[in-house]
Design goal:
Blueprint: H1 6-28, E1 33-38, E2 46-51, E3 55-60, E4 64-73, E5 78-82, H2 87-98, E6 113-116, E7 140-141, H3 142-169, H4 183-210, H5 217-220, E8 230-232, H6 234-237, H7 240-262
Antiparallel strand pairs: 1-2, 1-8, 2-3, 3-4, 4-5, 4-6, 5-7
Helix pairs in contact: 1-3, 1-7, 3-4, 4-7
Length: 282
């Protein structure tokens, strides 16, 4: 019966809701990746970059802060942090990059500027791209990005459903398994599983691609370098919070089951099967 030790069920609802809140915080912030870039190995001037799953900021030489947006081409399975007048311009720019069509006169003058002191464009006087094929560029993987977003949404949905269902079970006693307290073990476990999946996916892409090339236009074409100068930010690491939360939620529910099993008032009534052929009427 849910009425027994239902305080643990309520606590499970609160903890699962906290896990959802942390996941939403991670999704909405722009610190999945943060680090620096430089024009060449001898240059003392560094530019700062940070971004989340949808957008970020590129602070060029501590003077101009540009907004960059995650731009993906699923037909080529690539993503990059680009900016432009609109989405069509960004997608065209990404397709040109993938095909190796580099515009040496390109600058971020059309990018949205959040803060600025003065404009200092990066021109061809810096390092220039010497490759001729997209294989020389380290793009972000569009499939990994999409799966990360999908698994985050699934984790939020499952965690939210688990929290709501646990709250419902504190005032009701549904007989359907998928609405009962026992089903909360499954829903919290699924939320944990989705988190583990997208943490592995994004962590793998960081170690394979992002640590060497942050995915900006300038780093893709070779005008700037970010090799081993970028790191996983707090928006990524905060996802271990909901992982712990859902685990604690399951632990509380297991502890409640343990207390119920020890309670002599909780008796299991076994009903005889009326269809048993060994039962005879005389």
């Amino acid at each position: 019966m849910v009425k027994t030790n239902r305080g643990y069920v309520f606590a499970s609802a609160v903890i699962s809701a906290a896990g959802v809140a942390l996941t939403l915080l991670s999704l909405s912030t722009e610190k999945w990746i943060h680090g620096q870039t430089r024009a060449d190995e001898l240059s003392p001037e560094l530019s700062d970059v940070n971004y989340g799953l949808f957008q970020g900021n590129f602070k060029q030489f501590s003077t101009v802060n540009y907004q960059v947006l995650m731009t993906c081409s699923f037909k080529h399975n690539v993503c990059a942090l680009l900016c432009g007048k609109d989405g069509d311009e960004r997608r065209t720019l990404l397709d040109n990059l993938y095909e190796g069509n580099i515009d040496p006169s390109y600058s971020m003058s059309n990018c949205p500027v959040t803060t600025s002191v003065y404009y200092l464009p990066i021109s061809g006087s810096h390092r220039t791209y010497s490759g001729s094929a997209s294989s020389d560029m380290k793009f972000l993987n569009a499939g990994v990005w999409l799966c990360t977003v999908i698994f985050i949404i699934l984790s939020i949905s499952t965690g939210l459903f688990s929290a709501g269902l646990a709250l419902y079970n504190t005032v009701a006693n549904p007989i359907e398994f998928f609405l009962s307290v026992k089903s909360l073990f499954i829903y919290n476990g699924l939320a944990c599983g989705f988190i583990i999946l997208y943490l592995i996916l994004w962590g793998a892409m960081y170690n394979i691609v992002i640590i060497h090339n942050v995915g900006l236009y300038y780093t893709l074409v070779g005008q700037m370098s970010s090799d081993k100068m970028v790191y996983l930010g707090y928006s990524y690491w905060i996802n271990f919070g909901p992982l712990v939360a859902y685990t604690c939620s399951v632990g509380l529910l297991y502890y409640r089951e343990y207390l119920n099993a020890k309670d002599p008032k909780q008796k299991n009534v076994i009903l005889e099967d009326s269809a048993d052929p060994n039962i005879y009427l005389y």
